[in-house]
Each structure stands twice: as structure tokens, then as C-alpha cells.
Specification:
By secondary structure, the chain is of the alpha+beta class. 44% of the residues lie in helices and 18% in strands. It has a three-stranded antiparallel beta sheet with strand order 1-2-3, covered by helices on one side. The N and C termini lie far apart (49 Å). The model has no long low-confidence stretch (mean pLDDT 91).
Amino acid sequence: MEELLRRELGCSSVRATGHSGGGCISQGRSYDTDQGRVFVKVNPKAEVNDWQEDWVVFYARQRIQPQMDMVEKESGDREALQLWSALQLKIPDLFRDLEIIPALLHGDLWGGNVAEDSSGPVIFDPASFYGHSEYELAIAGMFGGFSSSFYSAYHGKIPKAPGFEKRLQLYQLFHYLNHWNHFGSGYRGSSLNIMRNLVK
């Protein structure tokens, strides 16, 4: 890793510091360099997303479907699987006449991954990928969310497009399913409620 950081960051000095650790998906470690301290997340799986020309296909196949595969494997939840079958048919309608310009997303932008120091705001622990900018707001509105000034500033730059609220639910579905798979069935109800709302 040290050699990779030297090469990619153009550093002459790189030294691992502190303890390595990880969450439920990736491992991480901080490094002191002659350009400052960096934190690196590493995931040994060769999966980290295939490029798709179509965002709707990407989201359904590479975000929701893997979560549903885990639900099926772990619990075989019949209602969840039936709702997902119905929802897949409805997803394209949520994006009709919408131009999606790929944006580099943080991917896990919630209150626990945001802080501030003397130099200003800091965001950390990304799960980055290219996708629809609205996706970023899904988990931002969960678990306490952000202040109204955050959303005003965001929508001042990127106004809400028609259908925003339903797409927001679709994007939150990934996070609820992910929490169901990682932290237990306490998130089942929220996952199913979103699917029920979207298939109406």
C-alpha cells in the first residue's frame, strides 16, 4: 500500500500510523505522508461496480438486486421477494423524461460521516461510485438527517426534478435493505413499506 500511495499521491514519504480497522464491508488504515495524513479504505473483493451506460439498469442490478439476493438467502422473505418482482417493472417509470448526468457520489452521506474542524466541513468514510446526484440525498435524510440549510443549498444548485420524492424513496430502499442485511430484521418493515408505496 505504501508504494501505491507514493506513486498515486506523488509522496516521497509514507508511513502507516495508528491502528487498522474496519466496518462491515471494508478495512481502513491511516498513513502519514509528506503531504499530510490520509485514510485509505481497502476492499479485497474484485466486485467495487461494473460500468453501465444506463443508470436505471445499474441501480436495479448492482444496488437493489444484490441486497434482495441476500434477503432471499438469509430469510427467504416471500413478501419482500414478491414486492421486488412487482417493483422492478415500475422502476423505469420513475425516470421517464429525466436526464441523468453521472456524478461522483460519496455514497454514504449521513450525519455520522460528517464533521467540522477549524478549516471547515469534513466528510469521510465514502462508498463512492458514479451515479445519479439524487442518490446522495437518500441516506442524508435518514437517521436524523441534516439541517434545512443543507437541503436549501443543495437544491439551490440542483433543483428538484419531477418525481424526486418517489425516486428518493427508491434510493432509500437500498439503505434500508442494506441495514436489514447487516443489522437485522428491525429494518424489514421500512424496506417493505417503501416497496409497497412504490408499487401502488
